[in-house]
Amino acid sequence: MKWSVSLLGAGLVLVVLRDLFHTLWHPTRHGGLSRLVMTALWRLSRRVRPRRRVAGLVGPLAMVTVVVMWAATVVLGWAIIYWPHMPGAFRFAPGSEAARAPSALDSVYLSLVTVATLGLGDIAPAEGWLRVVSPLEALVGFALLTAAVSWVLEIYPALSRRRALAVRLALLREADPTPRQLDNTAGALLLDGLAGEVVRVRVDFTQYAEAYYFHDGEDRASFAAMAGFAGALAERGQRAQRPEVRLAGELLAAALRDLAAVLDQRFLHTGGAPAEVFAAYAADHDGGPARR
């Protein structure tokens, strides 16, 4: 019976490690629990009015919630591992109040102290296998802290790239270049550069799926609101006379189709054409599509 309970705790720890791996390090980054938490908070924010004020908090709040969930589950899992063997398999410091506490409380306390790498020493494992398992918890705690910091440092550059592309598209919308103005080498370079930036955003949505749940704020910096205008620029390039401009327009259109496929497959599930996907993307982020 003791070992069955300990195995249950080990299972909880493994669930967290798997979710951590798939959220941060797996190439496709399909986190299970973390994705459910973020999706739930995003959908909940859609029920709140005014939504724009709340939506800006969803991404950061979701990340904090996921990290707290990971930490709490790790602490609980290791506490369950210790609990059936408490107090017989542990040594208590002379005069320690911990020896008088319930074994469940001692287990949670030991797990918290170990995962935080404090090493107070008033409770120490006495059996050989516990002397191996306990340092492993400290290693997991250190890995969890490192992973949380890395996650923050990775996600915000991806958001900056997306918002920079949105501002660039907003400036182009204000300039409103005609097909004739794009029908030159500069126009080809412009469309080719936009295609490259769209591809980077597409990769960001693949590698950092949680970036979807960050609201970009004003329409000028919202890629959700500006993606439609990128499609309009691609169409203007495709109607140009010069072959290099038509090629650049085709590249931009292909990049947008690829991005739309990723957004639809992972988040929106409309099953529609790219224009419909981008319209749904704009609606999901409370942004209107740019005029064409």
Automatic annotation (TrEMBL):
A Pfam family per the record: Ion_trans_2
Alphabetically ordered keywords of this record: Ion channel, Ion transport, Membrane, Transmembrane, Transmembrane helix, Transport
Potassium channel domain residues: 83-152
Residues that span the membrane, as ranges: 57-83, 138-159
Annotated GO biological process: monoatomic ion transmembrane transport
InterPro entries in UniProt: K_chnl_dom
SUPFAM superfamilies recorded: Voltage-gated potassium channels
The keyword Iron-sulfur belongs to this UniProt entry's keyword annotation: no
UniProt name for this protein: Potassium channel family protein
Source organism of the structure: Streptomyces griseosporeus
